[in-house]
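Input record, target 12 of the design panel.
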């Protein structure tokens, strides 16, 4: 059974930083492409970032490029998202995704 458990969200002021983590189990994490997606209040799911299995290839949505960094530790079956210079429009529930599977999400709120 695929399990994805996100953590690290919270309330942060504009310009602040957060680091999200996603602990994965139930599938071959080290051989798997992983993604972060998010859902803002009242909006649909938005793709945020992608990383290949080895971590050497990444891509980002234009809205977060230059501010967010995706990474992974295959020895720990864990995916990360470092978010810097956060903006109010980054407020959303953030999910890590393996194919069509997602975890329960972690809430990120950016507000003064």
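The sequence produced for target 12 reads:
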């Amino acid at each position: 059974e695929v399990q994805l458990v996100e953590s690290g969200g919270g309330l942060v002021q504009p310009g602040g930083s957060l680091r999200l983590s996603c602990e994965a189990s139930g599938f071959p994490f080290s051989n798997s492409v992983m993604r972060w997606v998010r859902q803002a209040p009242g909006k649909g799911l938005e793709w945020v970032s992608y990383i290949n299995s080895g971590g050497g290839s990444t891509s980002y949505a234009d809205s977060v490029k230059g501010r967010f960094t995706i990474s992974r530790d295959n020895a720990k079956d864990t995916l990360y998202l470092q978010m810097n210079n956060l903006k109010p429009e980054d407020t959303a529930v953030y999910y890590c995704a393996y194919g069509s599977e997602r975890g329960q999400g972690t809430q990120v709120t950016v507000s003064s």
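The first strand starts at residue 3 and ends at 7.
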